[in-house]
């Protein structure tokens, strides 16, 4: 046994005391989770063979596309008196775009590893056999996602960033909590709900074919993962008291705030020699339309999914009030992910198209 502590640059330990749960009840009583499990088994894909890694990627071109999306809200600060980026010219903005893309993809990578650990945890802690079956497929999905983002960053981009502080503290808190539903709420509902929206934005904006395709496949998996959270917690949360629900509401809202912070991308501003706090203050004060749209879109999956779980209106509507103050309550009636995951199954779509082409050729 080694007595030396692991190198903190390379490893991080999170202490947790959890109940690993055997279930001796093998009866399949949750058909919605069973259906999701069947879907997961047939919609697996392979990072090495299902994507075209020979694609040439120009990081500058990719970042220029983002100027219409991710960086636009920061560019608006150019017009703001005394803003910390007032002196930026085209060269600096191009560099911001490249670094933001590196940073966003790096945070996706680290978040995927968080999902891998959380879902492995759920296999152990959730008491239902149908959920253990499904969660095991998500563990494989998340390994694939870590693999795909690590490979893309390594082969096609210019730099990998360390995990953002807000994301790290949230993942640590989720993993340190012993309650099995909190792992789901933190990961499947909040982190993955936001990731699904963020992947969707990047997938729409980018024309880089490899990134576009890999995000399409990752999103197909993520939609199932968020659906897994919705379908599992919906049942469990029906049984909780108002006081217990209030704890979940507070956890969800705190997670939302930290996730919002993570998209300020302080690590990029530090690298550009600008104080991240000053950028945040300028953005809050100016609150340009691009910022409002961006913030709101990030919540487009989280809010309807929280509603489906009964989290908006439990405990005198505490979470409804918070989301109303944040200006995102209007998403409450958007489609929830428990309903839409099958429509996002890009793997099934591509296979059925390939199948019908083959049928046409052989007819
Ligand atoms: Fe993932
Ligand atoms: Fe996921």
Q: Identify the overall geometry.
A: globular
Average residue-wise pLDDT: 91
CATH homologous superfamily descriptor = Ribonucleotide Reductase, subunit A
Helix content: 55-70%
* Rg, nearest Å: 21 Å
Span of the ends, CA to CA: 65 Å
CATH topology: Ribonucleotide Reductase, subunit A
Structural class category:
mainly alpha
In total, the number of strands is 0
Looking at the overall shape, the CATH architecture is: Orthogonal Bundle
Sheet of most strands: none
Bound molecules: fe (ii) ion
Which blocks of ≥5 consecutive residues have pLDDT under 50? none
Number of helices: 17
Number of domains: 1
* Fraction in beta strands: under 5%
Give the SSE string. HHHHHHHHHHHHHHHHH
Which CATH class?
Mainly Alpha
General description of the model:
This protein is mostly helical and 363 residues long. It has one domain: Ribonucleotide Reductase, subunit A. The protein is 68% helix and 0% strand. The chain has helices spanning 31-42, 47-50, 59-66, 72-75, 90-125, 129-156, 165-176, 180-205, 209-237, 242-262, 266-271, 276-286, 289-298, 302-308, 314-326, 337-340, 346-362. Helix 1 (31-42) packs antiparallel against helix 9 (209-237). The radius of gyration is 21 Å and the shape is globular. It starts with 30 loop residues before the first helix and ends with a helix. 39% of the residues are buried. The model has no long low-confidence stretch (mean pLDDT 91). Bound molecules: fe (ii) ion (FE2) (2 copies). Residues 115, 142, 192, 222, 225 line the site of one fe (ii) ion.
């Amino acid at each position: 046994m080694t007595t030396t502590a692991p190198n903190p640059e390379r490893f991080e330990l999170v202490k947790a005391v959890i109940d690993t749960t055997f279930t001796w009840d093998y009866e399949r009583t949750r058909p919605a989770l069973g259906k999701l499990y069947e879907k997961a088994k047939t919609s697996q894909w392979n990072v090495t063979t299902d994507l075209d890694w020979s694609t040439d990627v120009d990081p500058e071109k990719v970042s220029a596309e983002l100027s219409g999306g991710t960086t636009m809200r920061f560019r608006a600060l150019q017009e703001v008196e005394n803003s910390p980026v007032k002196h930026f010219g085209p060269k600096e903005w191009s560099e911001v775009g490249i670094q933001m893309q590196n940073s966003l993809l790096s945070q996706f990578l680290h978040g995927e590893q968080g999902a891998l650990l959380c879902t492995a945890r759920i296999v152990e802690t959730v008491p239902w056999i149908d959920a253990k079956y499904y969660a095991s497929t998500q563990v494989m999905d998340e390994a694939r996602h870590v693999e795909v983002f690590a490979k893309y960053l390594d082969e096609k981009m210019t730099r990998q960033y360390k995990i953002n502080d807000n994301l790290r503290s949230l993942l640590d808190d989720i993993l340190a909590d012993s309650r099995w539903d909190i792992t789901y709420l933190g990961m499947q509902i909040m982190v993955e709900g936001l990731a699904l929206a963020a992947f969707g934005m990047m997938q729409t904006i980018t024309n880089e074919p490899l990134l576009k395709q890999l995000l399409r496949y990752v999103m197909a998996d993520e939609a199932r993962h968020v659906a897994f959270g919705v379908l599992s917690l919906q049942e469990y949360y029906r049984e909780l008291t108002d006081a217990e629900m209030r704890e979940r509401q507070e956890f969800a809202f705190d997670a939302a705030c930290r996730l919002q912070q993570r998209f300020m991308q302080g690590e990029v501003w530090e690298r550009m020699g600008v104080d991240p706090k000053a950028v945040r203050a300028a953005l809050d004060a100016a609150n340009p339309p691009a910022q409002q749209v961006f913030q709101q879109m990030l919540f487009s999956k989280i809010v309807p999914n929280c509603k489906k779980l009964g989290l908006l209106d439990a405990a005198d509507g505490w979470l409804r009030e918070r989301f109303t103050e944040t200006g995102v309550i209007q998403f409450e009636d958007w489609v929830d992910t428990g309903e839409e995951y099958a429509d996002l199954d890009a793997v099934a779509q591509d296979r059925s198209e390939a199948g019908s082409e083959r049928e046409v050729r052989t007819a």
